[in-house]
Structure formats: C-alpha cells, structure tokens
Amino acid sequence: MNKSERIQAFVELGNFLSQFSSEDAKRNDHRLNSAYYDDFEALLDRVSNENLWFTPLHVHASINGICTFLEEQKLNDWLNKYSIPDQNTQLKVAIIMAGNIPMVGFHDMLSVLISGHSFIGKLSSKDNQLLNFVSKLLIEINSEFKELISFQSERLSGENKFDAIIATGSNNSARYFEAYFKKYNHIIRRNRNSVAVLSGNETNEELEALGRDVFLYFGLGCRNVSKLYIPKGYNLVHLLDCWKNYSFVNNHNKYANNYDYQRSMFLMNRIEHLDTGFVLLNENTQITSPIGVVNYEYYSEINQLENNLNKNSELIQCIVGNEIQNSIPFGKAQEPELWDYADNVDTMEFLTQLKSK
What we know:
By secondary structure, the protein is of the alpha/beta class. Helices cover 38% and strands 15% of the residues. It folds into 2 domains: 3-191, Aldehyde Dehydrogenase, Chain A, domain 1; 193-321, Aldehyde Dehydrogenase, Chain A, domain 2, CATH 3.40.309.10. It has helices spanning 3-17, 33-50, 56-69, 72-79, 106-114, 130-141, 171-180, 204-215, 236-242, 253-268, 302-311, 347-352; strands at 92-96, 118-122, 149-151, 164-168, 185-189, 193-197, 225-231, 274-275, 280-283, 293-299, 316-321. The protein has a 6-stranded mixed beta sheet, sandwiched between helices. Helix 1 packs across helix 6. The radius of gyration is 21 Å and the shape is globular.
C-alpha cells in the first residue's frame, strides 16, 4: 500500500464516520453502510451505556473531531513536511492508549498507519471497542490493513516484538513506562491540562464559547480548560452568567456526584468559592482542578504571566484566549488540527525517523 492509497483509505473512513458526527447527522450512500452502518450505530449506543462518561453528545463530538482530520487536503498538507515512505515499512509501533475521552488514541493510530508502519494497539479498558471497530472499517476499505493492524489485550512487553512505543497515561504510569520501555524508541505522555487567559474585553459570545472548552467531555480531556488567569477586578459573576447554558452537565449522575463532593469539601473546610449550582470556581494556583471545579488566579502583568506559563509549559497542553502568543481561540480547544500534537511532541517526526534495527 503506497502513501496515496493510505490517504485515500482514511478519507473514505472519514466519509463513513461523518454519518455519525452529530446526533442529527444524515445517512449517506457510503459503500460500507450495508455491512457496517447499523452495527456501528448500535455500538455507539452500547458504548454510551457501558461507560457513562461517554455520553452520546461526547461520542458524536469525538467522531466529528476525527472527521475534520480526515479531509484529503488536510492530510496532504500535514504529510508534505515529512519524508513518508511510499511503501509499507517493516517497523512495528505499539500504542498504549488513554481512555478519558472517546477514541482519544485515534490520532496515534492514524499517524502510525499513514507513515507506513504496523500498528499494535493496547486499548484502555474504558474505551476498548470503538477503535477496534474502526480497524474493521479500514480493513474493509483496503485489505492490506489486515496485516498492519493488531490489538493486544495483555500487558505490552518486549515479547511483543515492536520497534517503538507511544504511551499515554497518568504521571504515575508514565514513570513506570519510562523505566519499562527505556530500551525502545519511545514517546511517553503525562498528565496535562489547559488554561485560559482572560483580559476582561472578551465578548459574551467568546465567554460562552470558553464554556465549551471547560465542559465538553466533562473536563476529562487534556485540552479541557481547568484554570483561568484573570486580571484584578475581573467580573467573575458575568463570566458565570455566560456559562448558564452548560448547566445541563449537572444532569449527569457521575458529574453531579463529583460536583457535590467538591462542594461539600469546600463548605466543610470553609474554602471561599463561587457556586453556580453546576460548577465551582476556586481561587487556586494549581493548574489541575477536580471534576466540577475550575481554578482561577489573578494576574497583573501579561508579560509576567507569559513567563510563568512558559516555565510551566510541561504541565500545559494548550492556552485559550487572545492575550498570549499562539493561543487557541475561545471554543476551539477541543478542535485540534492534525499538526497540534499532544504534549507538543511531533509524533510524525518521531515515526518517520524510526530505523530498522
């Protein structure tokens, strides 16, 4: 399978998945529909029932994000800066995936396969069905993928005979990964969160869009905003008024349980906070915040804040706002491009520089 055939396969995959990119997406006449449409639709329902964090809204949002990747022009623009082999390599790359949001490991899977390598996936127990189904779709689109895609149910070890590994996990698991896979070419990812920098000049529309960056996936993603930096005198009440349309998150039992617990802890420990009835705002220097809580911190000088953010760059996935260079627009934190790499590590550069032993 050459580079062009790989690209075309993923474009066709995107066309199929686009039928599920929202709850009101329309069925088209894709050639895979007769064999796979009903099964995939049933799988989406089953996944939402088995992992209650994966609500239909969030599963469709994740699929929509993937579909924006799988456009032919975007794929070509992304790959043109790399030396992609025109034939499949003999290299095998293992991927240990997180399970915090639906199909969070898709970009790694795409990167491995489109660079010509064989993919060995270790799925999270929290998200162990969707990418397996996606692999069946790819194999149906191009049967050569059958020799290039495999999934490992047991713990990955040297006996799996792979050439490189990409692992995503908590800070604790990352220390284990670093030690266990040190002899392999590797990328090890750790906990990260995203932040927003506000000036006080944002429009109501921008502040409402920021709510999407905070609440989509219930704040479980590394691109979710968990911390706000605000100027002294900032009107937090106005901000919270702009988030009122996200109050539906508290209808979700698991989210509500986390919110109620954090609220009880604040009250019991007499910690000052703002409470909307569905999210708590807490003045705190920590970037990471619990589910149901958004931390905030005042700043006085934007240059000083930027220096502080640079010093903590290893803890930050992305910055939302208009004030800091290379920030992401409000509402776009969960819409990364193909070249917006996790932990700012160029996955494709890593993959295209791998050599056979």
